[in-house]
Amino acid sequence: MARFNKMQVLDAIVSTGMVPVYYNKDVETAKQVVKACYEGGVRAFEFTNRGDFAHEVFAELIKFTAKECPEMILGVGSIVDAGTASLYLQLGANFIVGPLFNPEIAKVCNRRLVPYTPGCGSVSEIGFAQEVGCDLCKIFPAGNVGGPSFVKNIKAPMPWSMIMATGAVEPTEENLSAWFKAGVTCVGMGSKLFPKEMISAGNWEAISTLCRDALATIKKYR
């Protein structure tokens, strides 16, 4: 069961403006990454369902987070079907994110008042997702579906839209300023926030610094 309610989850995502996106099959590495992000100011983190037995890693990670990072809201990404969403909700996922829009997932999440952020590649998909209660919609892959200009053009006729950009997002002032000037609510950031050399070296403080700097840049341009 989720530790945080829907309003708490959305508030954390909106207030910080960034959701790190990460997967590692090694539980201990995943723990250290989450903790590094937490110490860097992150309060919502997406663990992606991308490997065999990923749910087992998530189960350990969410127990660790509750104890060591009490204000961290842990969710799960790369969810494409209702059955997998149900599995992770049972393990305590506080939000569900997907690369596509599946209304059956929305039903499962709405029943438990857990936010569902689907991946959308068109204005119509965003509209359909909003109809079934998706408060925050992800444009994905953000760099390929139109970039910041796509967000700006969505917000013109649909100013109520809450948009997360994931894909082609980098922790640089040039990149982040473009997305937030266009009107995104938040960004999802993966590999650029977790350079392989930093992970291999166990340089967790460097990851904390990347998070801290990215959050400061986001705050500057909101």
How would you characterize this protein structure?
Keywords: Carbohydrate metabolism, Lyase. This is Bifunctional 4-hydroxy-2-oxoglutarate aldolase/2-dehydro-3-deoxy-phosphogluconate aldolase. Belongs to the KHG/KDPG aldolase family. This protein has 222 residues and is an alpha/beta fold. The protein has one domain (6-221): Aldolase class I (TIM Barrel, Alpha-Beta Barrel), CATH 3.20.20.70. It is 49% helix and 15% strand. The protein has helices at 6-16, 27-39, 54-68, 82-90, 103-111, 123-131, 147-155, 173-182, 196-201, 204-221, and strands at 18-22, 44-48, 73-77, 96-97, 116-117, 119-120, 136-139, 162-166, 186-189. The strands form two sheets. Strands 3-2-1-9-8-7-6 form a seven-stranded parallel β-sheet, sandwiched between helices. Strands 4-5 form a two-stranded parallel ribbon. Strand 7, helix 7 (147-155) and strand 8 (162-166) form a beta-alpha-beta unit. Helix 2 (27-39) crosses helix 10 and helix 7 (147-155) runs parallel beside helix 8 (173-182). The chain is globular. The termini are far apart.
- Helix segment tally: 10
**CATH topology name:** TIM Barrel
Structural class: alpha/beta
Low-confidence stretches: none
How many beta-strand elements?
Answer: 9
Q: Over all CA atoms, what is the radius of gyration?
A: 16 Å
Domain count: the total is 1
Residues in helix, % = 40-55%
CATH class wording: Alpha Beta
- Beta-strand content bin: 15-25%
Main sheet attributes: strand count, strand direction, barrel closure: 7 strands, parallel
Give the overall form: globular
How far is the first residue's CA from the last residue's CA? 33 Å
Q: What is the overall pLDDT average?
A: 97
What is the string of SSEs from the N terminus onward? HEHEHEHEHEEHEHEHEHH
User: How are the strands of the largest sheet arranged?
Assistant: 3-2-1-9-8-7-6
